[in-house]
Amino acid sequence: MPSRVRASDELRQAALEQFATVGFAASSLQQIADHAGYSKSSVLYHYASKEALLEAAIGPAIDLLETLLGDFVAGGRTGAARATFIESFVDFLLGNRLAVHTFVNQGQSLRGLPVIERANTAIRGLADSICDDDAPLAEQMRFGVALAGATYTLVAGATFLDDEQKVADGDVREALISVLSELLLTADSRPTR
Amino acid sequence: MPSRVRASDELRQAALEQFATVGFAASSLQQIADHAGYSKSSVLYHYASKEALLEAAIGPAIDLLETLLGDFVAGGRTGAARATFIESFVDFLLGNRLAVHTFVNQGQSLRGLPVIERANTAIRGLADSICDDDAPLAEQMRFGVALAGATYTLVAGATFLDDEQKVADGDVREALISVLSELLLTADSRPTR
DNA sequence: GTCTATACTGTGATAGAC
DNA sequence: GTCTATCACAGTATAGAC
Question: CA A137 to CA B38: how far, in whole Å?
Fold first, then answer.
C-alpha cells in the first residue's frame, strides 16, 4: 500500500461506510477501526470524538448541498435556473451517495449536531423559498415529492438493488433528470387537479 | 385515569414515539418507561425485549403495508387499480406516520429483524412487479420517485413543519393524491424523454 | 503516530421482594 | 403487575508506553 494514503482519510472513509450501512448510533469506534485496519485509540487520536468523525465524514457533502441550495434560492425562479438546479442536484446525489444516505437515514436522530443542523437549515431555506409565495399546496407537494423522491429512490436503490441489477449510473442520472423535469419544469402551467 | 387504558398499550405508544423521534438504537428502555410513567422493569415484563417492543410498535402498520402492496401486485395493471392504490397508499401514510417514520429512518440499521424484513420483502415484491416487464428505466424511476417522494415528504414534513404551518391533513391528502396521479396514472402514454 | 491498558458511564436484561 | 437491586457487557474517552 502506498504511504500516500493517510490514516485519517482511511478512517474517515471507513467511518462513512459504517455510518451509512449500520447507522451512526449502532456504529462503534471499534468496528470502524477494525474496518480501516487501525486500533480504536488511533481513531480517537485523529478525531477527537465520534461526532467529530461524523463531521469529517459527511461535512464536505453538506458544504456542497449548502452552496447548491443557496445558489438556487438566491438565483431567479426561471425555468432555466430550475433545469440547471435539477441537474446539479442529481449529480450531487449520485456523487455523495454514502453521505446522503447517512444524512437521510440518521439525520432525524442526530438533531443538534452542527453538521446536521447546517443541512437542515439549508433544506428549510429551500422549503421556505418554495412556500413563501402563495404557491398552491399541490405545487409545494410536487417539489417535495420530486426532491425527496429522487433522494430516497437512490437511498433505497442502494438498499435494495445493490446485489442485483446494478444499473449504470449514467442511465440512472438521465432517468432521474427526466422524471424531475416532468415534475418541476412545467409546474407553473399545471392544473391544480 | 380510566383503568381502561392498559399499561402495555401505553408502553407501546410511548415506545413508538421514542423510536420515531430519537431512533431505535438511541432509545433506551429507561426513557420509554419514563415517558409512559412506568419503571424499566415493567417494560420488560410486558415485552420480552427491546426488539419485541419494536415488533409491537410498528408490526400492525407493516401488516397493513403488506396487504396494501400485495393487493396491488396481485391485482390488474389497469388505471383504475392504480388510482385506488394511490389513494390507499396515501391514506396508509397519513394514518401510520410514526410507524412509517420509524421504518423509513431506522429500517436500514435494523435489517434482520423480522418486522423489518417483512416490510422489505413486501416493498421488494412491489419493485419487482414494476420492473419485471420491460418497463423503461424512466418509468421505474417515476414509480420510485412517486412512492418514495410521497413517503419521505410526509416524514420530512413531520420533521420540519411540525412547529409552524400545520397544514390540515385533508388538504395534504388531496394534494398528495393529485401529484401521485400526475406521475403514475398517465405514465403509459408518456414519452421517454 | 500508533498502540495497550484502563476508567467510567450507560445499556439491556435477570432475580426476587411486595 | 410493578417495583428495587444487581448483573454482565459494550460504549466513549483518557493516560501513558513505545
Answer: 42
Nearest nucleic acid nucleotide to A26, CA to C1' distance:
D11
Identify whether the C-beta of residue A17 lies closer than 8 Å to the C-beta of residue A98: yes
Q: The whole model's pTM is what?
A: 0.90
CA of B93 to C1' of C11 (A): 33
Whole-number Å distance between alpha carbons of A175 and B17: 37
Q: Which nucleotide is nearest to A47 (CA to C1')?
A: D13
User: A13-24 burial, b for 16+ CB within 10 Å, e for fewer?
Assistant: bbbbbbbbbbbb
Instruction: Write down all domains in chain B, each with its CATH number in brackets.
Output: 58-189 (1.10.357)
Per-residue pLDDT of chain B (193 residues; tens, 9 = 90+): 444 689 999 999 999 999 998 899 999 999 999 999 999 999 999 999 999 999 999 999 999 999 999 999 998 778 899 999 999 999 999 999 999 999 988 888 898 999 999 999 999 998 888 876 677 888 889 999 999 999 999 887 766 654 445 667 889 999 999 999 999 997 554 444 3
A with B: how many residue pairs have Cβ under 8 Å apart? 148
Rounded to the nearest 10 degrees, what angle do helices A137-160 and A169-184 cross at? 170
The DSSP annotation for A149-163 comes to: HHHHHHHHHHHHSTT
